[in-house]
From TrEMBL, chains A, B, C:
It comes from the Eukaryota. Keywords: Disulfide bond, Seed storage protein, Signal, Storage protein. Residues 38-244, 303-452 form the Cupin type-1 domain. Residues 191-211 have a biased composition (Basic and acidic residues). The lineage of its organism: Eukaryota, Viridiplantae, Streptophyta, Embryophyta, Tracheophyta. The keyword Protein transport does not apply. It holds the Pfam family Cupin_1. Residues 1-23 form the signal peptide. This is Cupin type-1 domain-containing protein. Belongs to the 11S seed storage protein (globulins) family. Seed storage protein. Residues 177-217 are annotated as: Disordered.
Length: 476, 476, 476
């Protein structure tokens, strides 16, 4: 009996110990990349707001822990306003669909969008505020850590925006947890629930939460909530009743709210502004970026990579690639991030390659493809389909190959380096081309003739069509 | 009985497990910032020396673990000499009180303070040594990682100096433990005791310590102690008896020793030197820092931020702010640190703001203020008074507001970025000013009129007086 | 009985807990530097290949965990080809012995070594490939993270090459485990076995391994193994039979294979090429490195530091030091690494010093010396002999002194900073020289005369002969 007791206690200890070590492993401050298996994931958290939806991927998943990122997708209805907030990580946002305006707030910079005395606002008083920028489908928007931003859907269709937050970026001096700091409203944080998973092992219970750990929504979540309303009244030089409005108590609209009527902004008429922004973008590399820093206050932070005419790589019958990095969007040098937009036509192979200096986080915009991701042991940590709406991480240095069958596959890849570099394993600009033929022959134990075939048969770079073509196998 | 036994054992296991996980959590190499509560702290360790006192804050406290810093306060009596040492972290020192000289040793740089043959030292032999710099109340002294330094109080009052060591700085390739390496004496390390707290969980016992883990003070602590005295004799080309003096055995004076007589240094007469240094400081931005690197050996590393005439922000009846960053003290670009000196008059509000790219470690020099620090959930992780002599950390991105009542509040804030940036939430250069009025109205659910009040009522930046004034509430 | 039971259970819990915490401590993502003792180590893992041997040091050893590096030694027989691979860490390779050619592949760069139509290869078809560089004894070769490379021994003696991989480098965004990604063959990874040590605590078992955790050598390890052979056939535009050759199944030659006959490479005749490379090296600092970046594709990555005529420091009767850093090999700015080659004659002291901004990993090329390494508490964490073939890590800021007796001691030191700086504690360019005489007298409690002896007696920098000389002790 005593022995049974002992064994039982021992096994309990073991179980607890095991749990303990697992629990402690979680909050690794830097990415732990022992990823034996990666899955293509859909968002597993969904927050309904008054005028939209916020969906997020669990940042504790192995692939995101390894890459040190968090991924969020926001859907904003027409007339939806995403409340101003900032986060502890720099982020890139890709606009999957829709159009609207975005304001990124650099406090201290001048309010350069101003109404003249003739054109006062609805109530006859002139407004002035910082520059707002238009965005549209295919845009990448760059937002530094700690910079507040808001956006508004002034179009007719839903805006769908996918963001990757680089929490392992050196700009984030807090820990690896993604955090949103809201300036208004009372929104549930899309990552909040995941904190709890991590915090539990420490046996603590936040008294501000209910018995099941859920966020008490009657409470107040924005930055003003933790401040004395008297101090706020003094700081804003208003009465305390109005100051308390800043705390947005009992605001259940979430982080995306509906604007009544039309949102009045000071800005150039759409066509004029777009022409202006078009000009700025086109002249971006030439005129603005001259080795000296752009003025901080006029730093351009939007670039379109969805437009086919903008492609950096184009292979007839195979597809195209557009890239935004610190060479064509200078702010990315601060963010240490870049992105690519890729369209693979049907029956196309994205040639096998690896990312030399970055993780790559793929979001599938449209269609599907077969993808294989290979680790340093030659094992496929992913071998399957990636479909529209899914996210897949390709860790730095892991090899990857993609192939479409009947569908076109469109995706955006977010990279954790401002000048992400890839090396192809096949094609005209690849490792095999760089190797002497006799090294190939000896390395792969093939004849010199076969070595030449491996080296010279594929003429394309990046992409190649896999459609049967005349003479395809002739050379082999 | 057996059951009770089992339950007791189980609970013990749980307790141990919990302790275990806490113990393991401690040596997190990067800051873990799950800070639910921050306290304003006074030093909790005190080491008496022959001619002064070294006080330190426990670097294992959550707020310091999050910020990745260690804080020390030294009090040096007149004629006190702080022995040469270096540490694994770059540091900023603020001189709270007193005056003296500091030597920062860049080995390989020339000995530029030289006696001519006419003015030989007390024994008739000429000395020559590296530049020494005067310091006085209000100075910030920047000391890179691994650079040895010493200082001497040649004034009439005690020197009080507060240092912040940035152990999470990239210049530190060792772990997150602050370490001092002494070149002379046999000082007890002010952080030594805290290592033990961390080391214990690994169950090791250092044979060089007593049964209760205390440092055996009869031993030898400086760098020469671990070297063979024969090797030292050969290296210094002296006899072994003298070489053994380097090891300072049985030196119980601690790290601050008393100089007998007056310390003779080669240096320009005080007024001449000060005039020179004054000139250097004033011309600092214009002449010296021209985009090219200053010569390493003449790198200026002292800047006064206490002087009222030096203020960067000044608001009548409210107070002033002086900032030192890599723009006015170039060495800070290497250290990735900056600092501000702030004086709030009574009844003043430091407008609510957040630090975009740095932690801020506040040391209260004089008086007291009410402070609120708010996290991403809108919770006040600190809400209380900060008093003279206390330290409070404001983590990156957390919002903070300060308000004085009857007292003047003077503090210095050390920041973990060479160009720390803040965003105000209220005032003329704030987020609310940057937002369109209609966004404010929709975000906070207030009328357009109230939105304009929130946006335009406060005309000051940074500081505002909270004294009742005529027409204060008139606008609201 | 029940009590004994309880105590036994409790002690078991304690033991388990202790093991648990040890197990968890291992995969610390950043170096943990509580090194109470460092050992001079020989490699403890050996992999025999067809034409050579790969030996590695356990990267989990405390000193390597602290420095964040992994060390490997490769011996390549004449006609041995080291298969192309890349790793997740930048590395420096020192050629201890032999000569050969190395190819570092920058995909996308042009194939600049080309055969004209007249001089086609053995089969009459012209080859063209990227530049290959000659290397010889005393060379440092710099290889960035993620850059594939191969090398070939075309000499008559064995090539011996020691590599230090800086896994804690910011270029590595994966975790701290060193990883090699092979493009060909089926090699056992030299670090693979050590993963298992780390992985075990998590209780996982890799199904691809045998019951004792060994790698199943019948499997396939290179990057192509995880990809569908159909995709490979399409990517390389060859038939599937040939594509499968890329996967190198059942290739048991290891990572160093024997080339049959002579390896035919396109390259200038040896003397002509060497003259060219000689020129390039000599003019390296002057012509090529002008503040602007060298073209990425022609970046020089080899520099000889073994040649006595290249010495940066030379002391008659004592020895010499050659250093390669980002000032004379520009690529090191990207790698954040540097290296020194040191020869100490017999009866010589390498003056005591510390590394201000880098760890130093010493590989003993020849002979032996007594070495002492001292931590911040004045304790010698190493005090013993370092012999040919051993590795010793000197952590950042730790003090170190070396002394030879009868043997010449030759070593190469790899440093984790592209401009590693040391401060000497004795000699003409040292801390003691920088200090005022009276500070020395007060710090070490010696007379002014003795202080002057300590300061001025040694006239050399870096090295001093310890041979009895006339008048040696006279001054003391």
């Amino acid at each position: 009996m005593a022995k049974a007791n002992f064994l039982f206690t021992l096994s309990l200890c073991l179980v607890l110990l095991f749990h303990g070590s697992l629990a402690i492993r979680q909050p690794q401050p830097q990415g732990e990349c022992q990823v034996d298996r990666i899955d293509a994931l859909e968002p597993d958290n969904r927050i309904e707001c008054e005028a939209g939806v916020v969906e997020s991927w669990n940042p504790n998943d192995d692939q995101f822990q390894c890459a040190g990122v968090a991924v969020v997708r926001k859907t904003i209805e027409p007339k939806g306003l995403s409340l101003p907030s900032y986060s502890n990580a720099p982020q890139l946002v890709y606009i999957v669909q829709g159009r609207g305006v975005v304001g990124t707030i650099f406090a201290g910079c001048p309010e350069t969008f101003q109404e003249s005395q003739q054109t006062g606002g609805s109530s006859g008083v002139q407004d002035q505020h910082q520059k707002v920028r238009r965005f549209r489908q295919g845009d990448i928007i760059a937002i530094p850590a700690g910079v507040a931003h808001w956006c508004y859907n002034d179009g007719n269709e839903h805006v769908v925006a996918v963001s990757v937050l680089d929490v392992s970026n050196k700009a984030n001096q807090l820990d690896m947890n993604p955090r949103n700091f809201y300036l208004a409203g009372n929104p549930e944080d899309e990552f909040e629930r995941r904190y709890d998973e991590r915090r539990d092992p420490r046996g603590e219970r936040d008294p501000r939460r209910g018995p099941f750990g859920e966020q008490q929504q009657s409470n107040c979540n924005n930055l003003f909530c933790g401040m004395d309303s008297r101090f706020l009244a003094e700081a804003f030089n208003v009465n305390e009743h109005l100051a308390r409005k800043l705390q947005s108590e009992n605001d259940f609209r979430g982080s995306i709210v509906r604007v009544e009527g039309n949102l009045h902004l000071v800005r150039p008429p759409r066509t004029q502004q777009e022409r202006q922004e078009q000009l700025e973008r086109e002249s971006g590399q030439g005129r603005r970026y001259n080795g000296l820093e752009e003025t901080f206050c006029s730093l351009r932070n939007v670039e379109n990579i969805g437009d086919p005419s903008r492609a950096d790589v184009f292979v007839t019958e195979a597809g195209r690639v557009s890239t935004v990095n610190s060479n064509n969007l200078h702010i990315l040098q601060r963010l240490q991030l870049s992105a690519s937009h890729v369209v693979l036509y049907n029956n196309t192979v994205r040639l096998p390659h690896w990312h030399m200096n970055a993780h790559s986080i793929i979001y599938a915009v449209r269609g599907q493809a077969q993808v294989q991701v290979v680790d340093e042991n030659g094992n496929a940590v992913f071998d399957g389909n990636v479909r529209q709406g899914q996210v897949l991480t390709v860790p730095q240095n892991f090899a990857v190959v993609k192939r479409t069958e009947r569908d076109v596959f469109e995706y955006v890849a977010f990279q954790t380096n401002d000048n992400a570099m890839t090396t192809d394993l096949a094609g005209r600009a690849s490792t095999i081309r760089a190797l002497p033929v006799e090294v190939i022959a000896n390395a792969y134990r093939v004849s010199l003739e076969d070595a030449r075939r491996l080296k010279f048969s594929t003429q394309e770079t990046t992409l190649t069509s896999a459609r049967p073509r005349s003479g395809r196998w002739a050379a082999a």
